[in-house]
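Quick one before lunch.
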Amino acid sequence: MDRTYETIKIERERDGVTWLVLNRPEKRNAMSPQLHADCNDALFHLATDPQTRVLIVTGAGDAFCAGQDLRLFFRGTDNAPRERFEAAENSHSWRWTRLSKFPKPTIAMVNGFCFGGAFTQLIACDLAVAADEAVFGLSEVNWGIIPGGVVSWNVVNAMNSRDAMFYALTGDTFDGREAARMGLVNFSAPLDKLREETLALARKLAAKNPATVRYTKEGVRAVRGMSEAQAADYLAAKSDALRFRDAEHGREEAMKQFLDEKRFRPGLGNYVRDDASAS
Ligand code: ACO
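Model of the acetyl coenzyme *A complex:
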């Protein structure tokens, strides 16, 4: 039985797909201190939840997330240093530390408005999908603030540097199609197809060997900041660790299916996870 939260919902699909839904639709899912605390707690539990093989982060109603709650997160803690500190810690912890290190694949499904601080969880997720109609904006410049937390660092990593600077300086909005063109999301789809397309992607990932998927995402993330020599050494160690860690023995199984049984061709489809129950 899942915990229940004031500002978020946990919803489950078959096949190990779990939704983390920001649930303040009347405030366009703006992030209050309570929402940060709820998300932080939920991610801690979902990280080891055996029923969660893939996590999708999205928003209720017509917004993904309208950024930090200007009333509750900013103004509401201006004269409350302890509350500000706690909210900022939770905010960074779930949106970056816990989400970017989540041990299973993560997908941001941008169903509508995505502003300011919401770019952090957008980019923290391994993959992102947007509605064509979604509206993105680095609106901080309009509020007399900068894209803080780790938003500036994230956008300059995830976007072309000219695009990152352009949107940070102008605060102009852009839609889901443009986000896909820029590579900020993997693809966009019409809003009425978004859920179906996102679930198809999630199910594709959920069907794969979990240890290999985990080590792949950790490896791809980690090598960005390394030299070639560091990356080669790290990836060799990571490969060895995977063979120890993989309860399904996917390497041996895939080779057996290809070399001995001749029933698997990687160019024609995925190997069959006979031992999927081991995960
Ligand atoms: N903080 C606090 N409240 C918010 C926020 C926010 N970031 N975004 C929306 N709300 C509230 C509105 O104040 C309104 O509350 P009310 O019903 O009590 O008046 C409610 O959510 C609905 O918002 P509307 O503006 O009425 O909804 P609409 O659909 O017309 O517009 C939109 C949605 C475009 C998202 C608009 O609300 C907006 O521009 N919000 C601000 C987005 C933003 O700039 N966020 C970045 C904040 S800075 C940061 O994240 C670091």
